[in-house]
TrEMBL record:
<dbReference type="InterPro" id="IPR004872">
    <property type="entry name" value="Lipoprotein_NlpA"/>
</dbReference>
<keyword id="KW-0449">Lipoprotein</keyword>
<dbReference type="Pfam" id="PF03180">
    <property type="entry name" value="Lipoprotein_9"/>
</dbReference>
<keyword id="KW-0472">Membrane</keyword>
<keyword id="KW-1133">Transmembrane helix</keyword>
<keyword id="KW-0812">Transmembrane</keyword>
<keyword id="KW-0564">Palmitate</keyword>
<feature type="transmembrane region" description="Helical">
    <location>
        <begin position="9"/>
        <end position="28"/>
    </location>
</feature>
<keyword id="KW-0732">Signal</keyword>
<dbReference type="GO" id="GO:0016020">
    <property type="term" value="C:membrane"/>
</dbReference>
<comment type="similarity">
    <text>Belongs to the NlpA lipoprotein family.</text>
</comment>
<protein>
    <submittedName>
        <fullName>Methionine transporter</fullName>
    </submittedName>
</protein>
């Protein structure tokens, strides 16, 4: 790659200056006495969090949810100090982001974790996949490793280290069908499914994109490791005024309405609590 990951984040940060300036109004509002808690989220997690925000309002908590369409901006914006927290990433992704950027961020609490799957709109089994089949996988190091582990579980490839959750394309030891890998941003795997033979997918993104039935994977991962639970993330210096975020997390983790929204968004059998 011509650019280092850190350079990419720097360039993206410059491009997103307008977004950050727009968010500055919330920062100023907080500094002048507003008790509004601003959380950056991915659209695919919006419904359960919106339900949690409605429940929180009944208890006098004011939650502002700000949606970001990519997986870089929420951390840039949080590190800049224009939101209080974000909710879109698991611990391996956060660790990698901190390593690449030097951002001063930390996990505050865990949310839901979900299974991931391999989906095809052209074939009904892995045996039907042709030689040189095109396979869509995430382009970030962490989720790409997760996709490769699932492809190994499907016996489509073999990895040099069968347990390495950070394996990359260079770590493929055997590829009998000569699969051709199409690397896209994680959220875009749900749309790439229409253009490839096989796609790694997240049930909640597929449900949001309406490109495939989230329950229709040829294979789901066996992993119930809470390593992949989506986290509420804050800055290292975050001070939880009046335990606002703590109270909101408690609502998210315990509200029957939120759990019903998670069942609807992910599929009842496709998510599990990352906090237990």
């Amino acid at each position: 790659m011509a650019q280092t990951a850190k350079t990419k984040f720097t360039i993206l940060g410059a491009v997103l200056t307008i977004v950050i300036l727009g968010l500055t109004g919330w920062t100023l509002q907080k500094k002048t006495g507003s008790d509004e808690l601003v959380i950056g989220i991915s659209p695919s997690f919006a419904k359960p969090l919106q339900v949690a925000a409605e429940e929180a309002r009944k208890e006098g908590l004011h939650i502002k949810l700000v949606e970001f369409s990519d997986w870089n901006t929420p951390n840039i914006t949080l590190n800049h100090g224009d939101i209080d927290a974000n909710f879109f990433q698991h611990q391996p992704f956060l660790d990698n982001a901190i390593k690449e950027t030097g951002f001063k961020l930390k996990a505050f609490a865990a949310g839901a974790a979900s299974h991931v799957g391999l989906y095809s709109k052209k074939y009904k089994s892995f045996d039907e996949l042709p030689q040189n089949a095109r396979v869509a996988i995430p382009n970030d190091p962490v989720n790409q490793g997760r996709a490769l582990l699932l492809l190994q579980q499907a016996k489509l490839i073999s990895l040099k280290d069968v347990n390495n959750h950070l394996s990359s394309l260079q770590d493929i030891a055997a590829n009998p069908k000569n699969l051709q890998f199409i690397e896209v941003e994680g959220p875009q795997t749900a749309r790439a499914i229409d253009d490839v033979d096989l796609a790694f997918g997240y049930p909640h993104y597929l449900r949001l994109a309406k490109t495939a039935d989230p329950e229709s994977a040829l294979l789901f991962d066996k992993n119930t490791n809470k390593r992949y639970a989506i986290l509420f993330v804050v800055r290292d210096d975050y001070k939880d005024k009046d335990d606002q975020l703590k109270k909101f997390v408690t609502i998210y983790q315990n509200s029957p309405r939120v759990q019903a929204a998670l069942d609807e968004d992910f599929g009842k059998k496709l998510w599990f609590p990352g906090w237990k």
